[in-house]
C-alpha cells in the first residue's frame, strides 16, 4: 500500500513534543514524497476558552475550524518544520468530540497513515478518564503511529 497522505493529529498539549512528532512524520513523508495534513480537533469548550487569546471575536457557531486550527499551538511550529523540509502540507481543523473528529478527518483526507501523540498515563487513569488516543487508534481507518514522549508527564 502506497503512502500518499499522512495525517498528523495534534492538540495544544503536543507543543512540548512538536519536534518529535514532526521528525516522526518526516521519516514517513520525505522518502515517499507524501503530503502531510496537520489536523487539530477541538471542542466547543476549548474554543470558547481560548477564543480571545486566538484573536477571534466570533462565537463557536460562526467560526471556520481550519482558521482556528491554524492559530492553535503547535501548528505554527509544525508548519515551519515542514516548510523547511520542503514537504507539502495543509492545516485542517475540526470542531466536536476530538476522537471522532480526528477519525472523520482521516477518512476525509484519505490518510494512508495517522500519527498522533499521547500522554503517559496509568491504566487506572485511562479507565476513569478515558483515552482520546486509544479511541482514535481503535477507530482509525488506516495504520496509526503512536508517538509517546517518555520525558513528558501531563
From TrEMBL:
Domain of life: Archaea
Domain UspA: 5-146
CDD domains: USP-like
Gene3D superfamilies according to UniProt: HUPs (3.40.50.620)
Database matches in InterPro entries: Rossmann-like_a/b/a_fold, Universal_stress_UspA, UspA
Lineage: Archaea, Methanobacteriati, Methanobacteriota, Stenosarchaea group, Halobacteria
Similarity comment: Belongs to the universal stress protein A family.
Species assigned in the record: Natrarchaeobaculum sulfurireducens
Pfam families: Usp
Name by which UniProt lists this protein: Nucleotide-binding protein, UspA family
Signal peptide feature range: none
